[in-house]
């Protein structure tokens, strides 16, 4: 599928079939997200792959009880790793670039999932400390986003987008 089709087909899915995502597809998503650009090519992020039902349920609870996180058979948790970018870029690298790296990787994973016929949804509303505890992340890792992935049990209605004139400024 070309990029236009891919971005048109991608939409937020919050209802998943009770069907596991095949390991081959998981590995393909992970391989593709590893191609994401990053500041200084430092890849100041990491990804936790969560498939265990009790951990998915704990993630859902830590994410303000968003139950679709537990329903999805696969949750990817993207964490910023500030210590990877701080030596080269200082505070801006630690405070911003590592977060950007994690979010770009998450976007690549979301698009890869779409390409593979899977649904996903970006989740940013959660308690960072609780998520970090669920995934047993080191203190220096900062959870940035959760990406539930699975086979869609719905085709969500398309939501309108803002007009380009509302978001683009020409100089």
Descriptive account of the structure:
It is a single chain. With 171 residues, this protein is an alpha+beta fold. It has one domain (3-154): NADH Oxidase (3-Layer(aba) Sandwich), CATH 3.40.109. The chain is built from seven helices and four strands, in the order ααβααβαβαβα. A four-stranded antiparallel sheet has the order 1-2-4-3, with helices on both faces. Helix 2 (23-33) crosses helix 5 and helix 3 (53-62) packs antiparallel against helix 6 (128-135). The longest helix is centred in the middle third of the chain and has 34 residues, at 82-115. It starts with a helix and ends with a helix.
Radius of gyration: 16 Å
Tally of helical runs = 7
Q: SSE string, helix = H, strand = E? A: HHEHHEHEHEH
> Could you say which structural class the secondary elements and strand pairing correspond to?
alpha+beta
The percentage helix is: 40-55%
> How do the strands line up in the largest sheet?
1-2-4-3
Question: Per DSSP, what share of the residues sits in E-state strands of 2 or more residues?
Answer: 5-15%
The fourth-level CATH homologous superfamily is NADH Oxidase
Architecture per CATH nomenclature, i.e. the level-2 architecture: 3-Layer(aba) Sandwich
Q: Kindly give the count of domains.
A: 1
CATH class: Alpha Beta
Largest sheet: 4 strands, antiparallel
């Amino acid at each position: 599928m070309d990029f236009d089709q891919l971005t048109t087909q991608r939409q937020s899915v919050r209802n998943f079939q009770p069907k596991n995502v095949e390991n081959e597809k998981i590995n393909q998503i992970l391989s593709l997200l590893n191609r994401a650009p990053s500041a200084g090519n430092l890849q100041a992020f990491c990804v936790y792959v969560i498939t265990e039902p009790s951990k998915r349920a704990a993630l859902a609870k830590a994410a303000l009880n968003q139950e679709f996180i537990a329903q999805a058979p696969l949750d990817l948790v993207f964490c910023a790793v500030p210590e990877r970018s701080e030596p080269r870029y200082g505070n801006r690298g630690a405070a911003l670039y590592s977060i950007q790296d994690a979010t770009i990787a998450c976007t690549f994973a979301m698009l890869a999932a779409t390409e593979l016929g899977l649904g996903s949804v970006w989740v940013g509303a959660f308690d960072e400390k609780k998520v970090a505890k669920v995934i047993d992340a080191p203190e220096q890792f900062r959870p940035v986003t959760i990406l539930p992935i699975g086979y869609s049990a719905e085709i969500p209605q398309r939501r309108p987008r803002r007009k380009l004139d509302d978001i683009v400024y020409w100089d």
